[in-house]
Design brief:
The complex is a heterodimer of chains A (about 240) and B (about 450). Chain A has about 240 residues and is α/β, with parallel strands linked by helices. Chain A has a 5-stranded parallel sheet with strand order 2-1-3-4-5, with helices on both faces. Chain A has a 5-stranded antiparallel sheet with strand order 10-9-8-12-11. In chain A, a hairpin with a 4-residue loop joins strand 13 and strand 14. The radius of gyration of chain A is 22 Å and the shape is elongated. Helices cover about 70% and strands about 10% of the residues of chain B. The longest helix of chain B is centred in the middle third of the chain and has 75 residues. By secondary structure, chain B is α+β, with helices and mostly antiparallel strands. In chain B, helix 1 packs across helix 4, helix 1 runs parallel beside helix 5 and helix 6 crosses helix 9. Chain B folds into 2 domains: about 200 residues, no CATH class; about 140 residues, 2-Layer Sandwich (Heat Shock Protein 90), CATH 3.30.565.10. The two termini of chain B are about 55 Å apart. Chain B has 14 helices and 5 strands. In chain B, strands 1-2-3-5-4 form a 5-stranded mixed sheet. Classes of the chains: A alpha/beta (about 240), B alpha+beta (about 450). Chains A and B meet through helix 4, strand 9 and strand 10 of A and helix 10, strand 2, strand 3, helix 13 and strand 4 of B.
């Protein structure tokens, strides 16, 4: 069971949301619940302080005389890094884009007429359900990455390779639709991630599941997205011995 | 034995004084922080070269004037070249600037040193003890040199000399002239000696050269100040331009408000009729329409103004306002979000401004070509970082794998223009990282700056 938390300071809206969510969970027979409602961020945080089970959170963006939605979401992330956070906003007037940079795995429900809310909640819950199902099957692993104030959990399957660029331990993390820089050392990352990644060169750590082909003549490793990484002599010997 | 220790010790002290003066002064001219490691490295290299040079000199038998002059030119040039290389390696500033700074530094340090030396030799009473005499003249003169150089360095920092210095490199012609002048100044003593071959150097000639130097310094300072004043006027004009853009945004908003009020009165009249007739469905429809209408007409403008208002670094605010105005003029839908006040840059202000300028220009270039031009700007200052991110719609999917690597350049085509210079700036600041991604038909580029 995946618990659902709803937090909004307007009690009529809170009641309405609870009704809609519980209806949808029942109709679609999702493995979700119980539904808990809160009127202040503090109550919600107090509730989840101890348990770190993955949950679904519907949060208001703006709480008068308390923290805002971003802060609340960041605190939730600390306890429940893989939870689904869905914001309920008056219009798309608040910092939607900002939230995108600071958090991950989330969605929006725009306050408005009843049917619209129902439809949005339906999609959000369906998304969460399909993600939970997909990830429970393959036992997804994550690489926790802290860049300054932001912590991200990156599914290992999404990672193409790590590359040491420039001096001073700057590392480039390449994914299919994303590139990130951070400071670290390839050796440490290699130890942390274990056998799913291969150090094909002093400066490259590639994801084995993304290797399409190894070009022994050109000394490169071709990845599933067509990119090439360098192949060192030692790694080449490893490959040839394996064959 | 004592003799060797004496010679070695004096040489060590003298060369340390000299190299330290050179290093500190040049670093101050370049307006950088002193890097202990490279300072020590420079002093060591300097000392080793001095030792080797002196040993060579002692072995050589020909000690005529011409040979010594040439020898000095080579030696000093070698030191300056090493200093230049070291500065370039440590601070990565422009080559021409670094060369000029090192040359000027040498000029100043050498002049002070030689004047101090001449004065001491002329006025030092005769001494029986040769060692004491040598110590008094050479060590004392080098100490004076070090103290003076440090004082000048502090003075330059106080006077914000780097601003004037920067002004000397604004155009390529000026940069070349500055470079030549500073190189000439560096060798001014040798040149004087070649032009007026005197048998012995007296205090008088040393005073002449100092007078020349002081004059040159004054001239340099005044020229630079004049230039800097001109630059300041231009900068102020820029700010006025940007303020105008801000004002235009406000005026536009006012216009919208006026016409909105007009519309609103009409709409209210309609609703009053509906209310009288008890048409609840109609009223609900009306309310929904009005709120979205309000959002469309005014929401964006107000949101942008509010966001821009939270940027409390005036030059940054001006830059962003004018860029947003430029985007709106080009028909791009703009979204700006600044959740918390932005108070700190985390890097040099000019560098942050250049980064933002490049990001916003790139976004505009790419967005213009897309079918639904849209740009979204985020500035977020949290406890330990300043996040600046720009997202834009695009016509052609950018090649992330190529753009992620430093060697990437595409002259002419949308993305990547200026990306190299952006990276160069970012790399100067340890802890500063970039990231980019493609999501929902938008290309996002983010810079995270540690505070």
């Amino acid at each position: 069971m995946v618990p659902i938390y709803i937090c909004d300071d307007e009690i009529p809206l809170l009641k309405q949301l609870e009704q809609v969510v519980s209806d949808q969970v029942m109709i679609s027979a999702y493995d979700m619940g119980p539904i808990r409602t809160f009127t202040t961020p503090e109550e919600l945080l107090g509730e989840i302080k101890n348990g770190c089970q993955r949950g679904i959170y519907f949060l208001d963006i703006d709480f008068p005389d308390s923290m805002n939605g971003l802060e609340l979401a960041q605190r939730i992330r600390r306890v429940d890094p893989r939870g689904f956070i869905i914001f309920i906003t008056a219009h798309d007037d608040l910092a939607a884009e900002t939230f995108r940079y600071q958090l991950e795995a989330m969605d929006y429900v725009v306050k408005g007429d009843h049917e619209h809310i129902i439809k949005r909640i339906q999609t959000c819950l369906a998304n969460a359900e399909s993600r939970i199902l997909a990830e429970s099957g393959e036992n997804t692993q994550y690489y926790p990455l802290k860049i300054l104030d932001t912590i991200r959990h990156i599914p290992l399957t999404k990672i193409l390779y790590f590359e040491a660029i420039g001096r001073k331990h700057l590392i480039l993390l390449r994914m299919v639709d994303e590139s990130l820089e951070f400071y670290g050392s390839l050796g440490t990352i290699e130890d942390e991630l274990g056998g799913r990644f291969w150090r094909c060169h002093r400066g490259f750590l590639v994801n084995r599941e993304h290797i399409r082909q190894i070009h022994l003549k050109e000394n490169t490793v071709e990845l599933t997205n067509g990119e090439h990484c360098l192949l060192s002599r030692r790694a080449k010997a490893e490959v040839q011995k394996g064959q | 034995m004592f003799y060797y220790i004496y010679v070695f010790g004096t040489l060590l002290y003298m060369s340390t004084c000299y190299s330290l003066s050179m290093y500190v002064l040049s670093v101050h001219i370049l307006n950088e922080r002193i890097n202990k490691k490279s300072a020590v490295l420079y002093c060591t290299i300097y000392f080793v070269i001095q030792v080797v040079a002196n040993i060579l000199l002692m072995q050589g038998t020909t000690l005529d004037e011409d040979f010594l002059v040439n020898w000095n030119i080579y030696l000093y040039t070698l030191h300056v070249v090493i200093l230049i290389l070291l500065l370039l390696w440590t601070y990565r500033q422009k080559v021409i600037r670094t060369v000029a700074a090192a040359a000027l530094t040498h000029f100043v340090v050498f002049t002070i040193g030689s004047l101090a030396g001449e004065v001491l030799i002329s006025y030092m009473p005769e001494m029986e003890n040769m060692y004491l005499y040598g110590l008094a003249t050479s060590v004392l003169s080098h100490t004076i040199m070090l103290v003076c150089s440090l004082l000048i360095a502090v003075l330059l920092r106080r006077l914000e000399f780097d601003r004037y210095f920067e002004a000397l490199f604004t155009s390529s012609l000026r940069a070349v002239v500055t470079l030549i002048v500073s190189l000439l100044l560096m060798h001014v003593h040798t040149i004087i000696r070649l032009l007026f071959p005197l048998k012995e150097v007296t205090l008088l000639t040393a005073s002449y050269s100092v007078a020349l130097i002081v004059l040159a310094l004054f001239f340099l300072q005044f020229a630079a100040m004049y230039q800097a004043a001109k630059e300041r006027v231009k900068a102020q004009e820029d700010i006025i331009m940007q303020q105008k853009a801000h004002l235009a945004l406000l005026e536009e908003l006012q216009q919208e408000m006026r016409s909105f009020r007009h519309d609103f009165t009409n709409l209210m009249t309609g609703m009053t009729i509906q209310a009288r007739e008890g048409d609840l469905k109609g009223i609900q429809d009306f309310m929904r329409n009005t709120s979205s209408y309000f959002d469309e007409r005014l929401g964006d403008e107000i949101k942008i103004l509010e966001a821009v208002g939270r940027i409390q670094i005036p030059p940054l605010r001006s830059l962003i306002t004018s860029k947003i105005a430029q985007m709106q003029e080009a028909g791009v839908q703009v979204n700006a979000e600044v959740l918390y006040p932005v108070l700190k840059e985390g890097m040099r202000q000019q560098d942050l401004l250049r980064c933002m300028g490049i990001l916003l220009d790139n976004a505009l270039e790419a967005a213009k070509l897309s079918t639904h031009p849209h740009i979204s700007l985020v500035l977020l200052q949290t406890e330990n970082e300043l996040l600046t991110a720009v997202a834009n719609s695009y016509a052609q999917t950018p090649d992330l794998s190529a753009m992620s690597h430093d060697a990437y350049t595409t002259k002419g085509s949308g993305h990547g223009t200026g990306l190299m210079s952006l990276r160069k700036i970012i790399r100067k600041y340890p802890g500063c990282v970039t990231g980019m991604n493609l999501k929902d038909e938008m290309f996002r580029y983010e810079i995270r700056i540690p505070l």
